[in-house]
Automatic annotation (TrEMBL):
The organism's taxonomic lineage, starting at the top: Bacteria, Bacillati, Bacillota, Clostridia, Lachnospirales
Protein family according to the UniProt entry: Belongs to the bacterial sugar transferase family.
A GO MF label: transferase activity
Stated name of the protein: Sugar transferase
Transmembrane intervals: 12-33, 48-65, 86-104, 110-130, 285-306
Domain Bacterial sugar transferase per the UniProt entry, residue ranges: 280-468
Species, as recorded: Anaerostipes hadrus
Length: 475
């Protein structure tokens, strides 16, 4: 039922946005041509085809990106950011479709821009009004779930405040039962205390409007939780139980899972939807295929130069540590002399990095050709094969060497909970100037905790810019 209510709200908000796009589009046609009939005379059936394209694109945005997440909790700036993101995605989708069907040259720029701008203003205003309407009426609205809180005196105020701050559009706390002290008749955050004993709780629940009950009881309390849940269920009242041991970290996401025959609660730092993971992998495959073509061209040009300056294999492979400690072979065009690994031990005293990473500005192991291909990142191109294989992603964290990994502390390993990348936050954030490994770890963890497909795209664009401008990197 709760999922159905949420889906209903999402659908209603989508309908509001659909109305805004429709009004904006036909208003733009009217302003551009004087009236709809003249617009239809000039544009023909395209008048309605282009409107349908905008609607379909909006539907796809709602399906893929769920722009209504946290709708009722949003502040003004967050609302503006989400609406702007939705409109930009819609405008980009309309432009892409127009280009693919070769309609872009005939598309009115005024209609395109006006529809996008009107939709943004419409969303900003209607979302605010819609949110204010539902939140102001949830106390008395018949559709709102009436909830009773069962808790202890030292937690009552905090629990009520936290639940009310979530601004659930269809939930209102109507009563509190304090089980460790008789506070009947008191008000806590303006919510009346109606019971304190096992018996009085059921007498109130039986005679009053109670749709749901939320129990927040410390595990060492002697209150009969299991019996309470069973008796409330017998009355047809939905019961929600907080398990205090699971309050480990508010930043951890929890979900119900099944491990073999056992029910369990799973914890993770950042859950990502299947659709987003598929989009990331599709981007990796597309980028990997293009990258392999570029690699083939680069090898034909720089390969002979590498071999002429320094005898030995053209490609360099090295064991690196990937997702959650998996070992894989990373591939590069060789930029060092063949004895580079043996000489590394001699140069460790000149390491310019603080921590578990080696970096040296004028590394004598690098050949003259190697300096050029490193500066232009040509040496990294064979890693597109690692991306296609699935060992790496286009964007991620730098994969450490095995000896670096063996010196990691426990918290360092979090940077390996996703696939390593060809490029990443560190590479586009001044890697030539960052000399503290702990700072790199913090950047990587922040990337993992706040990952999105759009952040990856932004990093890729920054990477291209840095490659064109030139930047030194570390092996």
């Amino acid at each position: 039922m709760e999922a159905t209510r949420l889906q209903m709200q999402n659908f209603l908000i989508f309908l509001l946005d659909l109305v805004g796009v429709t009004v904006g589009y036909f208003a733009a046609v009217w302003l551009r041509f004087g009236n709809i009939e003249t617009g239809y005379t000039v544009m023909g059936n395209d008048t309605y085809y282009r409107w349908l394209i905008a609607i379909v694109v909006l539907m796809m945005i709602y399906f893929l990106f769920r722009p209504n997440r946290g709708f009722f909790k949003r502040k003004f700036i967050e609302e503006m950011r989400m609406n702007l993101q939705t409109v930009i995605l819609m405008a980009a989708g309309m432009a892409m479709v127009a280009f693919l069907i070769q309609d872009a040259k005939d598309y009115s720029r005024f209609i395109y821009i006006f529809t996008s701008g009107f939709s943004f203003v419409w969303m900003q205003i209607t979302h605010r009004v819609y949110r204010k309407y539902w939140l102001s009426r949830r106390k008395d609205h018949s559709y709102a779930r009436k909830m009773m809180i069962i808790t202890t005196s030292d937690h009552a105020e905090e629990v009520i405040g936290n639940i009310m701050e979530e601004k659930n559009w269809d939930l209102w706390i109507t009563s509190v039962a304090v089980v460790d002290k008789d506070m009947t008749g008191w008000l806590i955050n303006e919510i009346p205390v109606v019971a304190h004993s096992y018996r009085s709780i059921f007498e109130y629940a039986m005679r009053s409007v109670v749709d749901e009950v939320f129990l927040y009881i410390p595990m060492d309390d002697e209150f009969p939780i299991a019996m309470t849940i069973q008796n409330l269920e017998d009355m047809g009242i939905k019961t929600n139980l907080n398990i205090s041991q699971f309050q480990i970290n508010e930043n951890l996401e929890r979900s119900l899972e099944k491990v073999g025959p056992y029910e369990s609660v799973s914890f993770s730092g950042h859950n990502v939807s299947f659709v987003m993971l598929m989009m990331k992998r599709a981007m990796d495959i597309a980028g990997g295929l293009v990258g392999m073509l570029i690699t083939a061209i680069a090898v034909i040009i720089v390969g002979p130069l590498v071999k002429l300056e320094s005898p030995g294999p053209l490609f360099f492979s090295q064991k690196r540590v990937g997702k959650n400690g998996r070992i894989f072979k990373i591939y590069k065009i060789r930029s060092m002399y063949q004895d580079a690994e043996e000489r590394k031990k001699e140069l460790m005293a000149q390491n310019e990095m603080d921590g578990l990473m080696f970096k040296m500005k004028d590394d004598p192991r690098i050949t003259k050709v190697g300096k050029f291909i490193r500066k232009t990142s040509i040496d990294e191109l064979p890693q597109f094969w690692n991306v296609l294989k699935g060992d790496m992603s286009l964007v991620g964290t730098r994969p450490p060497t095995v000896d670096e990994f063996e010196q990691y502390s426990a918290y360092h390993k979090k940077r390996l909970c996703q696939k390593p990348g060809l490029t990443g936050v560190w590479q586009v954030s001044g890697r030539s100037t960052i000399t503290d490994f702990e700072e790199i770890v913090q950047m990587d963890v922040d990337y993992i905790d706040h990952w999105s497909i759009w952040r990856d795209i932004g990093i890729l664009f920054k990477t291209v810019w840095l490659v064109v401008c030139g930047d030194d990197g570390a092996q």
